[in-house]
Amino acid sequence: MPSKSKATIESIQHILARKGFDPGIIDGIWGRRTEAAVKAFQRSKGLVADGIVGPVTWKALFGDAEEQAVADNPAIPWFQEARRLIGVREKVGPGSNPVLIDWADKAGIDYDSDDIPWCGLFVAHCISATLSGESLPGNPLGARAWQRFGAAGPRTLGAVLVFWRGSRDGWLGHVGFYAGEDSSAYHVLGGNQGDAVSVTRIAKARLLDSRWPATAPMTGAGPLVLADGDTFFSTNEA
Predict the structure, then answer these.
(1) With respect to CATH, is domain 78-212 assigned 3.40.50?
(2) Regarding the domain with residue range 5-75, which homologous superfamily does it belong to in the CATH classification?
(3) Ordered per-residue pLDDT tens for the chain, 238 residues
(4) From the CB of residue 117, how many other CB atoms can be counted at a distance below 10 Å?
(5) Domain positions in the chain
(6) What whole-number distance in Å separates Cα of residue 234 and Cα of residue 238?
């Protein structure tokens, strides 16, 4: 899924800096300093200081400049972080990809080997790196634990989707972000899909829950309906 989100975030960082709000390094990555700069700007304008660049904050920053395409929406920074990481893979053979270990260290998660399923770790990283006030579930490595994350939400870009794996009544699961849907499958942007961060199709019948961060306003974008395809269903994401 081609992304202009990096350029969008760079534009936000540039204009924050020009207005005197320090976003840190202008790198197109949504981190804690960028979030803090947005909050400071929002407070200066009497806006709700949630650190999210929704339509009102976008207009305060850019005036009447055209908003970005739905998929590049800066109001879902965790989803943009997920898109940035497409292609990251676990290490084949002995040892682990240090990128994954770094995600765990920064999120305060006990994780020392990418042989351990890491779909929950990926989601935890994307959320914690972009939403500083958001609480993670008690066991973020457990996919089904994400059914207790945030609040119930619609299936729209950036929503956290929780699936059963093996058996609906078992304990195995998978978690990732909603990236669209066709008539029979959700398109899921997640980690540990083919041992990498990727987008895959998962049968709609496997869905357990759709969640939304408690600290981020819902975008109201609704479902993103894509053309039916004949690509395979993912059946085992570990």
Answers:
(1) no
(2) PGBD-like superfamily/PGBD (1.10.101.10)
(3) 455 678 888 899 989 988 889 998 888 889 899 999 999 999 999 999 999 998 899 999 998 766 667 788 999 999 999 999 999 999 988 889 999 999 999 999 999 999 999 999 999 999 999 999 999 999 999 999 999 999 999 999 999 999 999 999 999 999 999 999 999 999 999 999 999 999 999 999 999 999 999 999 998 788 888 877 655 667 677 6
(4) 19
(5) 5-75, 78-212
(6) 10
